[in-house]
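Here is an idea for our session: we take a single protein and study its fold together. Once you have written the record down, we can walk along the chain together.
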Amino acid sequence: MGLWLLTRYEDVRWALGDPRLSSTMPTPAADFADGSSDLLADMYTFVKSSLVFTDPPDHTRLRRLVIAAFVPTVINALMEPISMISNRLLDEHSDSLDLAAHLAQPMPIAVLGQLLGVSLTETEGAQLKRWCDDFLLPFGRDISTLSPDELARIKSAGAGLHEFVDTVLSRHDAASGTDDVVDRLLAGESSDRLSEQELFANIVLLLIAGHENSTSFDRKRRRDAARPS
């Protein structure tokens, strides 16, 4: 598979601390002849400004600013909305429930909307998920192999996610009187705040990381079920 798999604790510790094994992903320095670097501009912003693809000291700074938003009071305030979302989804499918399709797939996106101060309809949640899925198309791929259709989907996903993040941020300001994750991300520290690019990258990271595990499991389940026995 063209990779090394480490299983010993000491080897893993060594690898995580070795600067040669960087989390930073390279981005193209020059435009592609087909203009795909312009189409992938939002993806490059995400790569350069999110927690996942940065090393210390940049990672240390981003982590400090992001983790400050997830205090117990903010997280505990989600308990009632999560309960309401769970009950609604279960009630809607009380006659016949597919646990993966009817609960594990729509619930994370709905909860993430609440976390970011946005109540999402089922249609809006499904659209947000499609944008997240399309935004991930270049990862693990040779970018030159992306088809025109895939590049168009990636560009559309980036524009859609930008619009969503802008909507989220526009509903929060210093006079709002709320104290949620987005307020705290915007507030930062007295001497340091997340830039516009960093806010976009890490809110998108939150969206993707917050739903990908459960929804990817459902995709794998459906893909395996479709294989001939």
Notes: The chain has one domain: 9-226. Residues 9-226 form a domain with the Cytochrome p450 fold (CATH 1.10.630.10). The chain is about 60% helix and 0% strand.
